[in-house]
Every structure is written in C-alpha cells, then in structure tokens.
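pls design
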C-alpha cells in the first residue's frame, strides 16, 4: 500500500511538472489581445500585444493609429496554470499572478483574479 501511495504521489508531481513545462512552452510568442471582459477590441485603430520570450522576459505594447503609446518590459514565470509577472512600478517590483484558463497553439484565455477580468488573446503569425 505504501508503495502505491508513493508511486501515485510521484506520478502526480511528474504530471504537474510536465503540465507546467507545456504551458511555459506554449506561451512563448507574440499574442494580440482580442477581447477583454467579454468585449471585442477594435483592430482597425490600434492593438495591444504581449510578447513572451523564451528567456523569461516579456514586452507589453499598446499602439494607436500607428503610434506606440505603451511599451512595458516585464519578467515572467509559468508554474502550472499560473503566469507570475513582475514589472517595475514607481521604482518598485509589482508582482501579479494571472491564471491560464485555456491555451492552444493559436489562442489563449487568461483570468486576472485581482481585476476579476477575462482576457482573450490570439497568437500573431
């Protein structure tokens, strides 16, 4: 019985570690924000993008009429279905945790528990 319990625990730890690595690989790339709070974002006038790089760094950009309004460099770490981001705000580190609700090769749905808001992103090609 003890061997079965140890084997079960080891399997769960191994499976969750694989899940985390899988999500960490899937988030890498350029993503365009398409919906926030259930509302479609207009694509003709501007865009909001989030680029996750393999080295744990990411860049958030907002453009309007071809002009970059926001460019924020952040670091991130994926653990299971949680993306933990760290950004500088007023000279201090601000850490946020966002939940991955679903992710495929070309779409991702995130939930921000602090803002209680869902975000849909499409992978840019």
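designed seq:
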């Amino acid at each position: 019985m003890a061997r079965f319990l140890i084997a079960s625990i080891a399997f769960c730890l191994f499976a969750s570690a694989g899940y985390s690595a899988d999500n960490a690989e899937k988030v890498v790339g350029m993503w365009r924000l398409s919906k926030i709070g259930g509302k479609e974002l207009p694509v003709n006038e501007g865009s909001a993008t989030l680029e996750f790089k393999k080295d744990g760094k990411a860049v958030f950009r907002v453009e309007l009429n071809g002009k970059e309004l926001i460019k924020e460099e952040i670091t991130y770490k994926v653990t299971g279905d949680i993306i933990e981001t760290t950004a500088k705000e007023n000279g201090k580190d601000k850490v946020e945790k966002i939940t991955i609700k679903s992710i495929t090769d070309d779409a991702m749905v995130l939930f921000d528990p602090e803002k209680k808001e869902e975000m849909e992103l499409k992978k840019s090609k």
